Amino acid sequence: MDLVKFVEEQTAKISDIPSFKAGDTITVHYKIREGSKERIQLYQGVVIQRNSTGNNETFTVRKVSNSIGVERIFPINSPNIEKIEVNSRGAVRRAKLFYLRGLTGKKARIKEKRA
User: Fold this and answer.
1) Cα gap 28→44, rounded to integer Å
2) pLDDT digits (tens, 9 = 90+) for 84-110
3) How far apart are CA 13 and CA 89, in angstroms?
4) Quick check: helix, strand or coil at residue 56?
5) Which of 30, 32, 33, 55 has the highest CB neighbour count under 10 A?
């Protein structure tokens, strides 16, 4: 059992991921492969949740594109994530913000945490 954990830790990508939680607005720099070309696409939105722990941890980012809500799930240890930038910290009182799916316009705004 200890050998399995050791191998998982060795193969996991150890990167400098900033600390962020649900409610924060982040920008994910994600590598996209199109044929033989590779480019970096920016995906900016609000973190709705962080799920699980360890190697299989994921986080969900929601953004509104052309008045349509789009959510994307990213694995934390994905080799395709170039970097993550935290744009603003949100003042929320829960860990999963699924209620944002039903809100539109000004109601869907999240207050910024004061320093």
Assistant:
1) 6
2) 999 999 999 999 999 999 998 899 999
3) 25
4) helix
5) 30
Q: Do the domain assignments include residue 58?
A: yes
27-68: per-residue pLDDT in tens? 999 999 999 999 999 999 999 999 998 889 999 999 999 989
Q: Are the C-beta atoms of residues 41 and 33 closer than 8 Å to each other?
A: no
Contacts of 100 by beta carbon, 8 Å cutoff, 6+ apart: 46, 48, 62, 108
User: Is residue 33 one of the residues assigned to a domain?
Assistant: yes
pTM (2 decimals)?
0.83
**Which residues lie below 8 Å from residue 56, measured CB to CB, with a gap of 6+?**
75
Q: Is 77 left (phi over 0), alpha (psi -120 to 50) or beta?
A: alpha
